[in-house]
Structure formats: C-alpha cells, structure tokens
Write a structure and sequence with these properties.
single chain, 91 residues, alpha+beta, two-stranded antiparallel sheet, disordered C terminus
Length: 91
C-alpha cells in the first residue's frame, strides 16, 4: 500500500442523499468487499459539543480532518494539497 492508503474509508454522502436508502443499498453486498460495518457520522462541530461527545459512553473514536500544503517553501507556484487525518482515541 502507498502513502495515505488504507483498508478503511470514510464515505460522505451528498446533502440531499437519503441515508436509509444508501445503507440499504450497501447491505446487499454483505461481506463482498465490506469487512466491517461502521456506525458513525460526519459533522462540523462548534462550541462545547465536541467536549460533550468525548465524554459519551457510546463514542468510540473521533477523527479530526485537516488539510496542509506539502513543501510550502518550494518555488513552484502550484503545490499539491494533501488531506490527512488526526485520530482521536482513548476518549
């Protein structure tokens, strides 16, 4: 596997997507390419709600997504943008 590749993916649905319909569609594949079924969601959290989530008994992991530029001091005008994740565990 190359840099940034893993067997775990996060899928973000479009704003107008029907979540129930999407999950029903996914269930038809069983274990055909789907090793585990994750319960979760993605949200932009503001205020104290993030701290409250960290204290909940039903939260396993919170992942913070951020972007950074690689080689920012390079003289090249167009630099590649990379996405990275910082895993928050041990809540």
């Amino acid at each position: 596997m190359g840099f940034g590749e893993s067997d775990s993916q996060r899928v973000m649905l479009k704003d107008d997507a029907d979540v129930t319909s999407h999950l029903n569609w996914l269930e038809q594949y069983g274990n055909d390419g789907l090793s585990t079924y994750l319960k979760g969601y993605s949200a932009e959290l503001i205020g104290p709600v993030l701290e409250y989530l960290k204290r909940r008994h039903d939260v396993k992991t919170i992942i913070q997504e951020f972007e950074f530029e690689c080689c920012a001091s390079s003289p090249q005008p167009e630099l590649p943008r990379w996405r990275a994740e910082e895993s928050r565990t041990g809540l």
